[in-house]
Amino acid sequence: MRQLRRWSRICVAFLAFVTACSSDTTGQSNSDQEPVSSGVTVVVNANVYTVDANQGWAEAFAYDEAGVIIAVGAEADVRAVAGEGPTVIDAGDKMVLPGFQDAHVHVPEAGINAEMCFFPRGLTLSDYEALAADCDGEQGESDWVRAAGASLFDLRDTDESPLAVLDRAVPDRPAIVLDDLGHAVWTNTLGLEAAGIRPDDPDPQGGVFHRDASGHLSGLLLEDAQQLVRNAAAPDDETNYRGLLLAMEELAANGVTTVSDAGGYWGQNHPAAWERALAEGTLTVRAANSLYVYPGLPIDEQLAELEARFSNDSDWLRFDTAKVYVDGILDLGTASLLGPYDVPVDEHYPSGFNYFTPEQLSTYVNELHTIGYRISFHVIGDKAVRDALDVIEAIDDNAQSIADRRHRTTHTYLVHPDDLPRFAEIGVIADFQQSADAVATDYHEFLAEFVGDQAFDLIPTAQLIEANATVTLSSDWDAGPLPPLGTIERSLTRDANAVPDLETALAMHTIDAAYALGHHDTTGSIEVGKFADYVVLQHNLFDLDPADIDDTTILFTVVAGTPIHQDLAFTP
Ligand SMILES: [Zn+2]
């Protein structure tokens, strides 16, 4: 497996630049096999679920040395196209699927956060204090003490200020504790100073400096206010790159071959890690990444930066998506609602919170659309959904061009019934995650106290399928679980708003996601002319009870014909 992985990375480098693996590298890994004259690979003895409506199932497929599929169908027909002496992969009568595509996943962040101290969710302030003191001891040399994973909304109404507690636990250097959902950080006084935040500063655009009962900074920074500390505490480029490599191994092990990085924090230099992976031939996933739109930056300055960073001409790495936060999250009371929260989470924003003024949002969306960006709108509340649909509909371009760009909403938690048909009408894609926490009925019961009965329609996946919208499934890893098979299982088995059938759920995590990411002409199905991006699964998912789908092992993951993950139980 180790050998395979090393070989595959070398090979990907060649694929990216000269669209062929050198005989030298293939020779290393195939030294005890027959010489390959044609450079063609055939996959046989397979149950290929192609996700191609014209093909359905197939027995075999073949691809050339550039990893492009040249035949799909019955084995005899595929072998006839493949010609003499192809490399043969015997799939062992297993199910083969196109590689999964994840339209919302925090790739470098997941790897970077994994190197930090881990703070579990739901602890008390004093438990976190002890963990912070331990973390301070463990991270002896570093400039900041860094931890991730805590749920910070429990810390808002504590008797003692979280700031004082973290000052006591980490007295000598700045500290940052990232929340589990990406919407808040907790820092100490040295952290506030390093970020340039003074006690009397007003809240920044799109963010909240949380304060205790006496009006003093609490050390909790909500929504975009957290970026001031995240930027100041950003790990170095080497750490970012290591995080990306670690995360890509997880993606490969879970059968993910195309992503859109959802963080896009160019203020923390994340794009440089991706560029380095492409340059060094270590990129093992196609990426149509987003770039974060910072609410606090001057508009002209930021648009110039984003225009310079735009790219969409590579099969491997594009920065062609802008991540625009419309609102926050329900748990912090920052999700933007059409009416007030039944029980206000924070009296300062009784109906929730918006990152941008309507004028700013309109300017950004129009200008980014003009540059060529597709826009991924973070939306949770029903007003945020409506704001996104309104601003897309009002783009100064014709309706067809707007639909062709495939702007999308992500999370898409609460959709007012009047807005359901608008997705299909305007051509906006609805992207959903299905974490166990978020689709659980007891969570909806809890939320109903704050937002009323609409909580029972949270994440209205089935409703938007019925409304003929294009819908996709994604993970939001590491804020949610990564495995696509788990997401698919939960999408089918949740109590309400379940996806009607496995065919639809698979399409949502393959071809429909490819469509959303602008990769559907070359990926998303096993089809002649597309890249051989595929997975081999332990079980045929159609033979399983849907509740068992997530127990299926990913045996083999291949991108552009190059293996990037192989389970020990699988010998091709
Ligand atoms: Zn996210």
Structure notes:
By secondary structure, the protein is an alpha/beta fold. Among the domains are: 2-98 and 528-566, Urease, subunit C, domain 1; 109-232, Diaminopimelate Epimerase, Chain A, domain 1 (Roll), CATH 3.10.310.70. It contains 21 helices and 22 strands. Strands 1, 2, 3, 4, 5, 20, 21 and 22 form an eight-stranded mixed beta sheet that branches. The longest helix is centred in the first third of the chain and has 17 residues, at 2-18. It is globular and about 80 Å long. The two termini are 12 Å apart. Mean pLDDT is 92; it is low at 1-37. Zinc ion binds at residues 104, 106, 182, 262, 476, 479.
Set down the secondary structure blueprint.
Layout: H1 2-18, H2 23-29, E1 41-49, E2 57-58, E3 60-63, E4 69-73, H3 75-82, E5 87-98, E6 100-105, H4 107-114, E7 117-118, H5 125-138, E8 145-150, H6 162-169, E9 175-179, E10 184-187, H7 189-194, E11 207-211, E12 217-223, H8 226-232, H9 237-253, E13 256-261, H10 270-280, E14 286-292, H11 299-309, E15 317-325, H12 358-371, E16 374-379, H13 382-393, H14 399-405, E17 408-411, H15 420-426, E18 429-432, H16 436-439, H17 441-451, H18 461-466, E19 471-473, H19 484-493, H20 502-508, H21 511-516, E20 534-537, E21 554-559, E22 562-566
Parallel strand pairs: 1-5, 6-13, 7-8, 8-9, 13-14, 14-15, 15-16, 16-17, 17-18, 18-19
Antiparallel strand pairs: 1-2, 1-3, 3-4, 5-20, 9-10, 10-12, 11-12, 20-21, 21-22
